[in-house]
Amino acid sequence: MAEIATGTSVEDDEQPLGFGVVGLGMGKHHCRSVTAAKGARLVAICDVRRELADKVAAEYGCKAYYDFDEMLLDPEIDVVNIALPTGMHADAGIKAAQAGKHIICEKPLDVNLHKADALIAAAHEHHVKLGGIFQRRLHPVSKKIRETIRSGRLGRIYYADIHLYWWRAQSYYDGGWPAGWHGTWALDGGGSVMNQGVHSVDFIQWAVSPVKRIMARTGTFAHNIECEDVGMALVEFENGAIGNIVCTTAAYPGYSNDFHVFGEHGSIIVRNDSEVVSWRIKGPNEQAEDEEMRRTYPGGRGTPSSDPMAVGLTGTPRKSRTWSTPSATTGSPSSPAKRPATPSKSSWRSRSRRRLASG
Ligand SMILES: NC(=O)c1ccc[n+]([C@@H]2O[C@H](COP(=O)([O-])OP(=O)(O)OC[C@H]3O[C@@H](n4cnc5c(N)ncnc54)[C@H](O)[C@@H]3O)[C@@H](O)[C@H]2O)c1
Predict the structure, then answer these.
(1) Cα–Cα distance between 158 and 145 in angstroms, integer?
(2) pLDDT of res. 334
(3) Residue 155, CB half-sphere, CA atoms under 13 Å: how many?
(4) Average of per-residue pLDDT across 263-268
(5) Average pLDDT over residues 308-327
């Protein structure tokens, strides 16, 4: 058996699922992940920049498309990975759903709730699976924190925060394709909170509690962009705790991304998504557990604090060959629908391909 997505098993002797990746910035990471995953085969890539598409296709020995609509006609593709500028996600995803392809969509699902909801509705309507890339949920320490809070080991939660102090040079905002899309309302949907902070904003709601109310301030200081490069919110969580979220790309030269949670029975502090700085829960094992957690989760995975491409390939340790998707399946990232009972791999085949197979 091999895992194709969290909680989903496929038979080794079955034909691998075919993937097509569109958008070759972060999409290049998707190519590497798909290639490294058991049960998956990179069939094609697509980018409007022909030279780039040809180069990546040659590197992976797959087909190159320059037009997304054409790639969607490829019957060998079961799953489409969307790594286009954010404001193009829902339009592309809806087309993929209409073509009967399952969808792995980069974060955030789109630039506003209306478009994200339309994408989720299309996935439901066309009976395809939709997964948003929220890789922080897959770090083992993230799951451990969530379990610890949910089990009540920290008791009543008083306070939680995210402090993401990163740096992006102006060249990052001037670059990308179409050039200059990062930091625009239309294609990025926001700045340091919406783009860089989105994993942490997702994580704190998922691990600690949904949010009841916020009061926020944003500013643009270090960059020539439409949206914020410093954003902060005072947060009241549904579980009664209070906290704050600060996400900036104006902290030269780029520092850490820290998470703190303080409760009745103790505190947890994590740096850069995966490094346990402190794990102190009152009781006879307090010191031993703290040492064990810091030893087990020492961090050192690299951080995109100043380099957007410095993200790991998987949420699990690099030695793992398992390819995983976030837990959100045809659900919004903040309230994922329940994953269906482990489907057989054939249920992952694109509808168009199943139609072909059945004549
Ligand atoms: N999960 C993460 O940690 C992570 C990290 C970085 C970026 N992202 C997300 O990845 C997405 C892409 O961001 P990026 O920084 O890689 O952008 P980018 O500008 O570097 O890459 C976008 C690519 O899409 C291509 N493209 C644009 N329009 C196209 C079209 N109509 N058809 C085909 N190709 C087209 C461009 O040529 C370019 O190669 C964004 O949604 C971003 O939020 C996620």
Answers:
(1) 15
(2) 27
(3) 11
(4) 98
(5) 45
What one-character DSSP code corresponds to residue 298?
A: B
pLDDT reading at 356 higher than 70: no
**pLDDT, tens digit (0-9, with 9 covering 90-100), for 151-171:** 999 999 999 999 999 999 999
Separation of alpha carbons 247 and 168, rounded Å: 12
User: What residue owns the CA closest to ligand 1's atom 21?
Assistant: 25
Ligand 1 atom index nearest CA of 177: 19
Q: Which residue ranges have their beta carbon within 6 Å of ligand 1?
A: 22-26, 46-49, 52, 68, 83-86, 106-107, 133, 135, 176-177, 195, 308, 311
Nearest Cα residue to atom 43 of ligand 1: 107
Q: How far apart are CA 22 and CA 44, in angstroms?
A: 9
- Nearest-angstrom CA–CA distance, 278 and 286: 11
**In terms of C-beta density within 10 A (0-12 exposed, 13-18 middle, 19 or more buried), how is residue 186 classed?**
exposed
What is the tens place of the pLDDT at every residue in 97-136? 999 999 999 999 999 999 999 999 999 999 999 999 999 9
Structural domains of the chain in order of their starting residue, each with its CATH number? 2-133+325-357 (3.40.50.720), 137-296 (3.30.360.10)
Q: What pLDDT, on the 0 to 100 scale, is given for residue 300?
A: 82
**Atom 31 (ligand 1): residue with closest C-alpha?**
48
Note the Cα 58 to chain centre separation in Å: 27
